[in-house]
Design brief:
Blueprint (H helix, E strand, L loop, with lengths): L1 H46 L5 H26 L8 H22 L4 H24 L9
């Protein structure tokens, strides 16, 4: 009889962990995709007079993987103590965005510090807003302290 209760408890814990992991993946994917699309559009509006779908897709992929590598670990680390619209989080995202933007400029073109600063500011604000807006949604929050 005790094994039945134990298996039920394990099942409930497994269900809870699955739900938490799916919520984390949903939040990360929404922030990554939204930030990458907006960053790519802003990049083209600032640097190129003519829009190119191929160029947009290439820049989108570069931004997506750069944000995945650099911004997501910061996002998960900052979610340990979540706060809505925290300036500390904005500064952390700006630092990561500056590094990502500098990396993209080094890969795709010559870095101009004024453009890197403008794009980094835009990226950090967009990622911060998406993260803070999604933080309000109780279904997408996680607490793993």
């Amino acid at each position: 009889m005790p094994s039945l209760y134990l298996s039920t408890d394990i099942y409930l814990v497994n269900q809870l962990l699955t739900e938490v992991v799916l919520n984390i993946i949903a939040l990360v994917f929404i922030c990554l995709t939204g930030s990458s699309v907006l960053a790519s559009l802003f990049y083209f509006m600032l640097l190129y007079p003519h829009f190119s779908y191929i160029g947009f897709i290439i820049i989108f992929i570069i931004y997506f993987f750069c944000f995945l590598i650099f911004a997501v670990p910061v996002q998960i680390w900052l979610r340990k103590r979540p706060k809505l619209f925290s300036v500390k989080q904005l500064l952390s995202y700006f630092t990561v965005a500056f590094l990502v933007t500098m990396l993209v400029f080094l890969i795709y073109g010559n870095p101009d510090l004024t453009q890197v600063f403008l794009i980094s500011t835009f990226h950090s604000i967009v990622f911060w807003l998406l993260d803070s807006i999604l933080l309000k949604d109780k279904k997408l929050q996680w607490n793993y302290s």
